[in-house]
Design brief:
The complex is a heterotrimer. By secondary structure, chain A is α/β, with parallel strands linked by helices. Helix content of chain A is 37%, strand content 27%. A six-stranded mixed beta sheet of chain A has the order 6-7-8-3-9-10, with helices on both faces. Chain A has a four-stranded antiparallel beta sheet with strand order 2-1-4-5, with helices on one face. The longest helix of chain A is centred in the C-terminal third of the chain and has 16 residues. Chain A is globular, with a radius of gyration of 17 Å. In chain C, strands 1-2 form a two-stranded antiparallel sheet. Chain C is globular, with a radius of gyration of 19 Å. The chains are: A alpha/beta, B mainly alpha, C mainly alpha.
Chain lengths: 235, 350, 294
Amino acid sequence: MTVILEADGIVSGYGEVDILHGVSLMVDEGEIVAVIGPNGAGKSTLLKSAFGLLKLRKGKLLLDGVDATNLPPQKMVRNGVSYVPQSDNVFPSLTIVENLEMGAFVSRGNYKQRLGEVYDLFPALAERPNVKAGKLSGGQRQMLALARALMLQPRLLLLDEPTASLSPRMVGDILTKIRDINRKGVAILIVEQNAREALNLCHRGYVLVMGKNAMEDTGQNLLHSEEVGRLYLGG
Amino acid sequence: MISDFLNPSYLAGFLTLVIIYSVFAIGLNVHWGYTGIFNFGVAGFFAVGAYTSAIITKKPATGDYMTYVGGLELPFVVGLLGAGVACAILAFIIGIPTLRLREDYLAIASIGVAETLRRVFINEMGLVNGTRGMIGIPQPLHGLVDQADYKYVYLAIAAAILVIVYIAVERVLRSPWGRVLRAIREDEITAAASGKDIFAFKMQAFMLGAFIMGLGGAMYASYVRAITPDTFVPMFGTFLIWVMLIVGGSGNNKGAILGALAVWLIWDRTGALVSDAQNPSIFYVRNLLIGVLVVAVLLLRPKGIWGEEKRVSIYAGKEPERARRKEPGEASEPAGAASVIEEPGESGAP
Amino acid sequence: MAQLIVIGLIMSSIIALGAIGLTLIYGILKFANFAHGDLMTVGAYIAFQTFVGGGHIGPLSFGYGMILAILAAMVVVGVVSVIIDRLVYRPLRRRNAGLVILAMASLGMAIIVRSLVYLGWGPDQRFYTPGLQYAHQFPLGIALKPDQMFIGAAAIISVVSVYLLLYRTTLGRAMRATADNMELARVTGIDTERVVIATWAIGGSLAGLAGVLLGIQSHLMPEMGFIFILPLFAASILGGVGSPHGALVGALVVGISQEVSTEWISPAYKPAIAFILLFAILLVRPRGIFGVKD
């Protein structure tokens, strides 16, 4: 099992405030890794730090074992890492197919083929490719955001609360899609408020509290752990 | 270059204009430095103040070459206050629709107002004598001394007005009202959450600043004694004052005065070169210099000469998305960067 | 009245070219470029400087030298715009400078540019070619000079080209994406720096073209572009900042209204008309016709 992403003792934050106080994690090839924890724990911050959207004040980031600390997002993208923000994650005035094309911006080769593969995974998008993304529902947008990220043919996908503000049915759909994507060999680091679903989905999970690592175990173990159940799974 | 300043009469004139511009700068400071109102139409208030004072203090119009309203022949003080009031009223009228606008839209709207006013002054001949302008504007206490010494009298009067304005504004800004204003400027959303009627405060500040600009306009009119709509072109009537505020340091009345001095010095000395060089192009060099000056200050020392800023990010702890994008219309950002303005000498927290 | 509308259309073409550039820059950089009018002035004067040769292309008042001059103007203004951005605006953006700072910087640049034009060519009016042109008579009392038809044609060609660029090329889509959400664009791997450069180059060259056409339509003066600032902003905001079709529609409304207004009020008030339109839209629907809600 090769490690794709390794974060070691990350300290980062906004303005004068540190949100993360030394967080470490690892994502192996082909894994789904979930990060759960209470609000304000720093889950989104962690993802942004991993993608180069936030400067690391301390700590290291390794991509394929090579130092990638503070690599800007464009370079991360070129290294096969794709990121889906929680909100504002599609271009509203561009159509579906134009959004997807933006996803493929970095590497132009075999665009048609990749588009075809993405359409296979997301048939709903293939039905109406010329609709403006701004007109889509929340769930459809989330699908589009995921699809867009896949156009880059990433090895690692960073997902920031993909089920946020989605209806329960859509939540199921999205999670199924994520599983499908993972089956094709894409490693996934997913940050979620919806702890139960995330733990059900993932191979391994981390619990983040107040910007620090609190627990780490397999998804199933965490799911059945009493402590986690009490604190985060809401009974 | 310096020899001009050894001539007391010239020096008196120079200082008078610095004082008049300081008054404008303080007025603009109330708008921008303290309230975050992006007023690009200063020339409009300048003009209204000057013309109002002229109308109030001059004799009535006499036939063909001079047509204007008013001509009340009242004393300078009345003209002064009348100018202030007229500008405050103008601010009220403009403010109702525009103060709720986004920063940049407010700026554009204020340019429009000033330009429209200028065109009205040019075109409506019966109003303020159009392009021929108003001449022979009376001066306060004129009979007191010989013509040759009058400059010093006027300088004294102007200085007195500046001192009063300065003290008054400083007092007002340290009052509870002033503190609310500052809170609004730094973070409108939080200030609104604490229940303050943002709009009312902004309007009051807008009218106060306009009143002060009106005073400046009246002072200018009585000093130069002749004004035309060309006096109030955007460069001279708006831009120059903004440059003064930026160079001197906004958020700070001492900075406003200092900026007025610095910029007027440059303006005056470059103008003096015209007589030396006999080349009218020098006037454009002067504009060029001012343009370069402001861009240089913005790039190299955005807080100006006197501006002091304690840099505390107002986005600390807020949602990251907002910290990243500088959205126009989001909590107004003070000059330079997200910061808390602290004046020298101010003690304690608000 | 029909004649006024037609003149309005001609002026609208010129306004449109300036407004499209302005709105693209506004949309992508969230920056109100107060120097845009003066960029038009630069274009006009560069063309003036590089316009050589006499002769006439058909009934037009100028020869092929003008085509070259126009190209020169567009290239120069495009390049100058990019340079100004790199030297002045970008460092300020990097520092997270507030809107006011950027606007003041653009005003400063406007003053600098205008002063340079004054120093280079003096304050007097200039013309590309001497003499008057005869207007062709059309029904409804419309009279159009061949030069004016040229202006209309040039504007149409340019606008169509811009549309093709924005909707049919990858760069155009990247520009629209960046205007939608710059951070997301970066996250997607779009080289936003290059998009910014392209935006300035395109916006600048359109402004340059607008300046030359304005010079052809009337005359050259150092203040010529600055006077256009209000109509340009009015058109952009009316149509919805960031939207090119918005700028087009806005330009039509502003241009025609300005000309038609002279039927009842003095021509000196034309910019005031633009301002009133601007004011009205800000009160009623601040996001403009095609704008998206903030």
